[in-house]
Amino acid sequence: MSEAILFAAILTFVEKGYDNASMDDVAARASTTKRTVYSHFGSKDALFRSALVKAVELFQSEMPKLADPSDPARELEAFAMGFSDLSTWRGAVQLQRVVMGGAERFADLGKMLHEQIIEHAEAMLADYFEAVATLNARNISQTRENYWELASIFLNMTTGPQRFATLLEHRQPSAVHPHVGGPSDTDRPAIQRAIAIFLAGTSLAAPIADNRP
């Protein structure tokens, strides 16, 4: 029942925000009673926190993997496209907005989101960059911190513009989860160009071809 309540809570907070969502709403969506919801989570605040943790776990499980260090152009494009699509999906965007809107109440949750989403992605990228450099016998970075810096630069170059534009309502978030509706090609040309510049600038590998018509 706890899992059902958490999934119901995620959907409810996405649709209504924190202030307008009620425990009755969550109970109805989970096909249970408000008393049961309170018995599992104690308060609306505790439920929201638990729901956000669950949402982060789901996001992490859906993130693309980085596997083949011999083809960084392809691997990085797939990763950036997948991360961008997940980050600009309506559910993910709305939960971020709810946390931002309650920054005073949920200051620690903003930190948690950054650590578990952005820094988690950067850690994956740092590991991958180190593997690429090792495979190619290129000593482009001598410390772990250098790979983290490269990861941060890469993530911002390839996904930052669309993530921020969507979060700030400059463009519409995707209404359909990318694992349901399939990947969007909207940002692919920009991501490919960013990757070409990144790879050429870091000497991790030869730049990918420019596919612009």
UniProtKB/TrEMBL annotation:
UniProt key word Transcription: yes
Gene Ontology MF terms in the entry: DNA-binding transcription factor activity; transcription cis-regulatory region binding
SUPFAM superfamilies given in the database record: Homeodomain-like
Pfam families: TetR_C_7 (PF14246), TetR_N (PF00440)
Residues of the DNA-binding region: 22-41
Protein name per Swiss-Prot or TrEMBL: TetR/AcrR family transcriptional regulator
Keywords, comma-separated and alphabetical: DNA-binding, Transcription, Transcription regulation
UniProt entry tagged with the keyword Electron transport: no
Originating species: Devosia aurantiaca
Domain of life: Bacteria
Entries under InterPro entries matching the protein: Homeodomain-like_sf (IPR009057), HTH-type_TetR-like_transc_reg (IPR050109), HTH_TetR (IPR001647), TetR_C_Proteobacteria (IPR039536)
Residues of the HTH tetR-type domain: 1-59
